[in-house]
Specification:
Distance between the termini: 46 Å
Shape: globular
Strand order of the largest sheet: 1-2-3-4-7-8-9-12
CATH topology: TIM Barrel
Strand content: 15-25%
Number of strands: 12
CATH superfamily: Divalent-metal-dependent TIM barrel enzymes
Helix content: 25-40%
Bound molecules: fe (ii) ion
Largest sheet: 8 strands, parallel, barrel
Length: about 290
């Protein structure tokens, strides 16, 4: 694994080259295909939707028609897994061109991806894989984020990962790695509170102290989701309602960072829309209590 991370390039903290413009606020929902019909028929009271960009990268057809119809009704963001920002591979120019075309067409408030990797030498996995927290890997992802922003002409949001292993070669903690990325790029952070809780429990670090190290003005979105307790570890399935310790950590995050647009993610065993709506209302209630 370590051999993959043989890199690169000088880094300097850059000026803000692209404005971070947002028309989203409150507790939104991840758009899932099983809910299209319900949403179009009932136009539920949801402040915004997050679309999985990788589902809309085709040339046309029903997916993009639906995406545009949602965009006409609600503010949207685009969230993906395909940039493989942590990989030693160069950015996939075809993927990035399709993503830019999609963003130009939909004009999302944000585009986000992960502090992780999904591909090497052109071979893609279906999983977000963890990085060794080394200076070399950090320099690599900083360079990739900068190049991705140049291609998209937009500020990226990058999301902290959930993980189940750590590398012996890591030279720093996850929070040092993430903070270094934020210090040396002009991207913003998508803080996944569930991911943070899962990783903290799996690796035995203090999630609240991690939060306290993050720069307040760089957190533009929060994700919440439900994990599965596998006994020896927590598994980030996105298949449950948000668990109580994650709600508690969310409240801690809001006490530090203020009212941050929040998104409920649900990816496996997707329930009826009203279950998701109930979770977003719960998040909204907590947001409303933030002064
Ligand atoms: Fe997330």
């Amino acid at each position: 694994m370590v051999g993959f991370f043989v890199f690169l390039c000088g880094i300097s903290m850059t000026e803000k080259r692209f404005p971070t413009v947002s028309n989203i606020a409150g507790a939104g929902l991840g758009l899932r295909s099983s809910h299209y019909q319900h949403i179009f028929e009932t136009k539920p009271d949801v402040p915004w939707f997050e679309l999985l960009s990788d589902n809309y990268l085709g040339e046309g057809g029903l997916p993009i028609v639906r995406a545009e119809a949602i965009r006409d009704l609600y503010p949207i963001t685009l969230h993906g897994v395909g940039m493989s920002l942590g990989s030693a591979d160069a950015l996939n120019t075809e993927y990035m061109a399709r993503l830019k075309s999609l963003a130009d067409r939909l004009e999302p408030a944000y585009i986000s991806d992960h502090i992780a990797w999904v591909s090497i030498e052109g071979q893609y996995t279906h999983d977000l894989l963890p990085l060794p927290y080394t200076l070399e890997a950090q320099k690599n992802i900083i360079d990739k984020i900068s190049k991705a922003q140049d291609i998209l002409g937009r500020t990226l949001l990058v999301e902290n990962p959930s993980s189940y292993l750590m590398f012996n070669c890591s030279e720093m903690s996850e929070e040092e790695f993430v903070n270094g990325v934020l210090e040396q790029t002009d991207c913003q952070l998508l803080l996944d509170v569930n991911n943070l809780y899962v990783s903290a429990q799996n690796h035995g670090f203090n999630a609240e102290k991690y939060l306290e190290t993050l720069p307040k003005n760089r957190i533009k979105e929060i994700h919440l989701a439900g994990y599965e307790d596998k006994g020896k570890y927590l598994f980030d399935t996105h298949g449950y309602t948000v668990h109580d310790p994650v709600w508690k950590l969310y409240q801690k995050a809001l006490s530090l960072f203020g009212s941050i647009p929040t998104l409920i993610e649900w990816d496996t065993d997707v329930p009826d829309f009203d279950v998701l709506l109930g979770e977003s209302k719960k998040a909204q209630k907590i947001l409303d209590e933030v002064t």
